[in-house]
Write a structure and sequence with these properties.
- This protein is mainly β.
- It has no helices and 16 strands.
- Bound molecules: zinc ion.
Length: 180
Amino acid sequence: MKFVMPGDKLGYAEEYAAGKGVYEENGELFASVAGKVVMRDRVISVEPVKRIPEIKKGDVVVGRIIDLRNSLALVEIARKEGFDRELMHTGLGAIHISNVQPGYLKDISTAFGYRDIVRAKVVDVEQMKLSTKEEGMGVIKAICSICKEGLVLEKNKLVCPSCGNVEKRRVSPEYGKGRW
Ligand code: ZN
């Protein structure tokens, strides 16, 4: 499954026809919405991120990082905090590099890792933009990038109990306390 954001290049008009959620510009095809790429009979479309009915601006959600780009982390939202996940529709959200932490962040991969669980605030429901800038937000569970063991928080550092690897994240004060 490939996830794209608006403006992401998908291919060339001579190879594919533009389906829903796709526009053509100078012979190239781009996503016009955030979502999942679907290719069928040489037609490229983007199935848009579904709006999650239960979620409002300002809500806190918990989800997993499923893709990291230069300036963007894609989050698969699992639930709204305080609600059972059975009651939720899941969906996709995105954290822009400017919404990761207070102050400037140069490289998003120093704040998040693939498959991290994050606690994030919803800042825009239409485009499902999330933020971990606010107090209490950030990574609540992460695994070692070398041996996949769960990282343990020790004095503001995430340490792997198995191989000793130390990793950097935008850590939430809730790290390791949840039921993840
Ligand atoms: Zn390790």
